[in-house]
Structure formats: structure tokens, C-alpha cells
Design a protein that fits this description.
Helix content of chain A: 55-70%
Oligomer: homodimer
Pfam families (chains A, B): TetR_C_43 (PF21597), TetR_N (PF00440)
Number of helices of chain A: 9
InterPro entries (chains A, B): DNA-bd_HTH_TetR-type_CS, Homeodomain-like_sf, HTH-type_TetR-like_transc_reg, HTH_TetR, Tet_transcr_reg_TetR-rel_C_sf, TetR_SbtR-like_C
CATH class of chain A: Mainly Alpha
Protein name (chains A, B): TetR family transcriptional regulator
Largest interface: A-B, 47 and 47 residues
Radius of gyration of chain A: 19 Å
Number of strands of chain A: 0
Distance between the termini of chain A: 36 Å
Organism (chains A, B): Actinoplanes palleronii
CATH superfamily of chain A: Tetracycline Repressor, domain 2
Keywords (chains A, B): DNA-binding, Transcription, Transcription regulation
Amino acid sequence: MVTAEASQERADSRRKRLRLIEAARSAIAEHGLQASTTDIVERAEVGVGTLYRRFGSKEALVADVLIDGLAEIQTWADAALIDADPWAALSGFLYAFTEAQLANLGLAEFTSGQARELPPEVAEHGSLLAAAIDRLVRRAQEHGSLRADVTWRDLVLISIAPIGGEECLGATRGENQWRRTITIALDGLRAPAASALPPE
Amino acid sequence: MVTAEASQERADSRRKRLRLIEAARSAIAEHGLQASTTDIVERAEVGVGTLYRRFGSKEALVADVLIDGLAEIQTWADAALIDADPWAALSGFLYAFTEAQLANLGLAEFTSGQARELPPEVAEHGSLLAAAIDRLVRRAQEHGSLRADVTWRDLVLISIAPIGGEECLGATRGENQWRRTITIALDGLRAPAASALPPE
DNA sequence: CAGTAACGGAGAGCATCTCTCCGTTCGGAG
DNA sequence: CTCCGAACGGAGAGATGCTCTCCGTTACTG
């Protein structure tokens, strides 16, 4: 998405297109998928007209940015799948996935299903990622380190668990607060399970 | 808050005031703290004027509703504190607290600090509740059933963990999905701890 | 240098929200 | 039952914020 086909794109045009994508990424990370076009073009230091000439709609730009983010996480999941230690691969991926969502509110909104009316292409990338997480889960279960009764859905839910608690009950949110939550959950994910899970 | 001092309030006036509070409760539960006045008065089947004559502002009505909700949860925490089994008391409270927030989006927003510009009275009720949860945590730790390195903050973060995942990655959200997440977390909270938590 | 692709940003047009104002209704005391 | 004023309903003022279009201006490139 970020890479363009080597057409006769004018140099300034290309520069501003890349600036727009980067600006959209940071605006969406901070304010979520409904970050305003005004916010995006101010960060990019371009006019609104430029955004609409290049992308046609705000939705198309948002989709580009989301797909970029999902593709990056996909590479992490794929790398984890060839890690020698299935438990370390799973837990490392879980920390990274959570951190990515904490750093990018838009991504967290997509993961938790709050996204509205996105192009089907985005959903496809989401499904690919879900499949990779499913493989990670099964591999760790076959290895015997992950409790047998969890599914990829449980993993994804745990990954977004710390999102809502960013600034909680007046607490000065520490850098490490989310790591504590994930660590507790990972302890609960270890085999053997201490108690039975309710059915899905 | 719901109960009025026995003044010479006209019967119809009292009826509509109670209807407004109940309507606000359900609107806030469904749409969060920024539920619109229009939504509230339609549920209550009264005019907007009635809302503003009785409560002065939307914010005052929202605060009333929030305080009611917090007070109810406070009674659960207080009851848990005199339960004979500290672990059962803690885990039972955690399930109930989470369920209450799932059933009331506004409450979840307040807990996770997304509330803006609420009267200080609401924050005071939040602090009272936090103190009660702190006592629940310490009691279970002294009893030896809860790992020693968690705090009330960890508990609150876990309680709001399932909120974001209501409808996740296209999954048809099951009634029990949140219970699975909480159960996994509780298994991770049991003493002895499998791994050390990062410092707060 | 000329031609034209790309640009900037004012503002149209729409949606939505809170709160006010005032003519109307109706509860309840005498 | 009558009557008075407390309580009511809801149109709409006024504010904000959003996406997207249009067109005069700028500046890249052959």
C-alpha cells in the first residue's frame, strides 16, 4: 500500500502522498479510526484537497493505514511460528500484539470489532492474522505448555484486555501496568489449567 | 439520589423524575456517558424541558445515575468483605463487577477513566469503591490464596478487560466469552505466582 | 519557458448536540 | 367544581464538528 508502482508520479506528489499516509497513521494511532481529516492534513502539512485527490475518501486512506498495521503484525506472527520454543513464541507474540494495540488506538478498535464500514480487504487481513494466531495456539497446546481449553479467540481478547485501562480510576498509569495484566493472564494460560473454562 | 426528601412534590412531577432517572440509566448503559438528551427523554416519554427543569443539566443527571450504580457495587464489595472464604469472596466480586460493567457501558467508561468533567462527588464514590477492593485484595493475600504481588489496580484492570472484546474479529460473541477471560485471569491470580510481575 | 499536473483551503452542506423559551395542560386546594 | 399556578412539551436557537467540492494559484518537468 505504501509502495507505489513506479509510474510517472511527480516527485512532489509522491512526497505528499507518503506524508499523508504517515500523518494518517499517527492521527489514527492517537485518536482512533474516526480521526478527522482536518487532524490528518494538519499533521501532513498539506491541504484537504490533496487528501481527496489522492485517496478519494477518508475511508480509503484509513483502510490503507489499517492494512499496513495488520501486515506488520502478521510478520510477527509468522516469525513466531518458526520459533523453536512454542510457549516463548506465543507469549512473546502476545506482548508484542498488545503493545502494538496500545500504541495504535485505531488498530485496537479494529481488533475489538468497533470498526464500521471498512472495505472487505481489511477484514481479509484480519482473518489471515486470526488464522496465524490459531496456529500459534495449537502449536503451544501440542507442545504441552498451553492449557488445552483455550482458543485463538481467548488470546485475542486477552491482547486487547489492557486497552480500556489506560488511565484507570485516577491512577497515574505506569508504563508497566499493561505488562502486569498480560503477565497475570499468561500465568493463567499455562498448562495444566487450575480450573475449567465455561464453554464458548 | 433516587429517593426524594418528602417535600410537597406534585405527584406527576415525581413520577416523571423517576422515569427520567430510569431512562437515563438504560440509555447510559447502552450508549455510554455521552448518551444524548434526546435519547433519554424519548425513553422516559417526557419533553426535554422536563429534564432541564429537574436536573439543570445533562451532566447532573448523568452524575446521579453513575453514583447510583457505584453505590450498588459498593454494597457487593462490602458484603464480600464479610464472606468467610476470602478467595471465593474476591473471585465472586470480580465476576459481578465485570458483569455490571458489561451491562452498563457508562459505568465501564467511568472505571476506565474515560469520563470527562464529572462532579467531584462521583470521583469520591469511585475512591470509596477502590478502597473496598483494596481491602478485599489484602484479605485474600493474608489468607494465602491470592498471589502476593498484585494490587487493587490489577484487579480493576482485569475487571474491565473483557469490555473491549464484546464483538471481536467477527466472532459471534457468546454469552460466556467474558467469563472465560475472567476465569483465565483468576487462574493467573492464584497463589503461588508462576512468574514475577513487572513493578508498577 | 510554457504547459499542465498538483496544490491549498475557504466554505457548502449536513448531522448532531445541549439547552431556552413560552404557550399549553393539568394536579390539587378550597 | 373551579381556578391558579406548577409542571409540561417540544420547536428551534445556537454551537460545534464533520466530510468533501471547487477553483484560483503554485511549481514541477520536458
